[in-house]
Amino acid sequence: MLELKNVTAKFGNYAAIRDVNLRIKEGEIVVLLGANGAGKTTTFRTISGLHSRSSGQIMFEGLEISRIPANKIVELGIAHCAEDRKLFPDMTVQENLNLGGFVHRKRKQQKKETMQKVYDLFPVLYNKRNDLAGSLSGGQQQMLAIGRALMARPKLMLLDEPSIGLAPLIVEQMFKSIQQINKEGTTVLLAEQNANAALSIANRGYVYENGKIVVEGSAEELFANEEVRKAYIGA
Ligand code: ATP
Q: Where would I find the ABC transporter domain in this sequence (predicted)?
C-alpha cells in the first residue's frame, strides 16, 4: 500500500531521516519505534506532504506521491494525526469533526455516517459533542484528534504518539480503539514511545536511530530482540 524507497528529508543541511526504506501492506498495523528526535515525526510529515523529501521515492497504491501537496494526499486516502493534535480549542467537538470531513464536503450523507462511526468508537465524544474541544481531558482530546482524522475516511492513518501524556488506563483504551479502527478496514502506521503497548497490537515494526532504520521485523521478532528490549521495552 505504502512504500518509502531510500527517502531522505532534511532541515537545511541536516538529514533528519536518511535512506529510509519502509513498506506497509494493506490491513497492517506497523509501528515506528525510536527515541525522541530519531526521525519518526519527520517520516510522517514527509509522507503526508508537509515536509518535502530531498531524495528517494514515496509510493502509495502504486502512485508516486513524493511531490503531491498535503491536501491532495488526504484526498488520496492518507490521514495524519499529529503528535500535538492540532485541535481548534474554541470550537466544539462536533465542529472539529466536521472540519476533518472537508474532503467529502459534497457528500453530506457519507459525512453523517462517518461521524456516527466516530461517535460509536468514542461514545464520550458524542456526549460532549457541543462542548468546546479545549475543555476536554487529554485522553478525550486525543480521541477527538483521531476522530477528526477518521472523518476523512482514510485508507491509511498515520498516528504520531497517540499515547503521549495519557494515564495508563486511558492508554490501554486508546490502543484498543486503534485496533478497532484497524479491524474496520483502516491500515495504521503508528509512531510510539510506548513500545510494549504498540508492539502488542502491531504486525510489524521498524526501529529508528538518528534518522536511520536500524532494525525491522515482526512484532514477535522485535519483542524477542535483546537490543530493542533494552532500549525501548525494559526488563
Ligand atoms: P519526537 O518523538 O520527539 O517527535 P521523532 O523521532 O519524531 O521525535 P523528529 O521530530 O522527526 O523525531 O526529528 C528528527 C530530527 O530532526 C531531530 O534531530 C530534530 O531535532 C530535527 N528537527 C525536527 N524538526 C526540526 C525543525 N523544524 N528544524 C530543524 N531540525 C528539526
A: 2-235
> What would the pLDDT profile of 192-209 be if each residue is shown by its tens digit?
988 888 999 999 999 999
Ligand 1 atom at minimal distance to the Cα of residue 38: 6
Question: Is the domain 1-77+154-169+187-235 a CATH 3.30.70.20 member?
Answer: no
Q: How far apart are CA 196 and CA 120, in angstroms?
A: 27
CA distance 205 to 195: 10
Average pLDDT over residues 11-30: 96
Ligand 1 atom closest to the Cα of residue 161 is 2
Distance CA(44)–CA(233), nearest Å, equals: 23
Strand, helix or coil for residue 181: helix
Sequence ranges of the domains in the chain: 1-77+154-169+187-235, 83-153
Distance 43 CA to ligand 1 centre (A): 10
Residue 25 cell numbers, joined: 501492506
**pLDDT tens, position by position, 43-93:** 999 999 999 899 999 999 999 999 999 989 999 999 999 887 789 999 999
**What's the whole-model pTM score?**
0.91
